[in-house]
Amino acid sequence: MGDVFLKGEVDIFGDPVPASRGKKGRPPHVPTAENRRFVTLSLACGHDEDAIAAALRITVKTLNRHYFHELDGKLSARLRLDMKNMAALVAKVEEGSVSAMAQLDRKIERIKQQETAKRYQQRSPDPVPAPTGKKDAERAAAAKVAGKYAAPSAPTIN
Fold this sequence. Notes:
Shape: elongated
Number of helices: 7
C-alpha cells in the first residue's frame, strides 16, 4: 500500500530512494551533486563532520567514505566561499553598482580589521615579573645593606 505513494526516484528532501524491495538491511547511501554541495557549504560555515552526517542522516564513516574529496578541502572551504562571493561582488562593481562598491569597501575594511586582530593576538605579551615572597624580599634587602651594619668583606688571600 505504501508503494503507491513512492512515485519518483527521490523522497521529499530530494534524496534518491534506491529500490530495496525484498532485500535485507538499510539501502546504501547514494551521494548526489546536491549532497556534495551541501557538505561543501556546511564545511565552509564551520560545521563539524558529526553535524553534517546527522543532517544527511548517515554515519560519519559513510560521510568519510562518500565525501572524502569534499572533506579534504575542509581548511580552504571558507576561503573559497568568501572569494567566490568577493568575485561576484567585484563583477557588480565593474558593472557600476554603487551599492556593490559600498559593500566591497565594507568587506575590505572587515578583512583589514581581522588581519590586525590576528597580528595583535600573535604578539607576545610583555613578560610579567614573578612576585617575590617575604623571604626573598628580606634577603634582597639584607644584601643591599651598606655602612656600619654591612656584612664584612671576604679576606683576600695572597
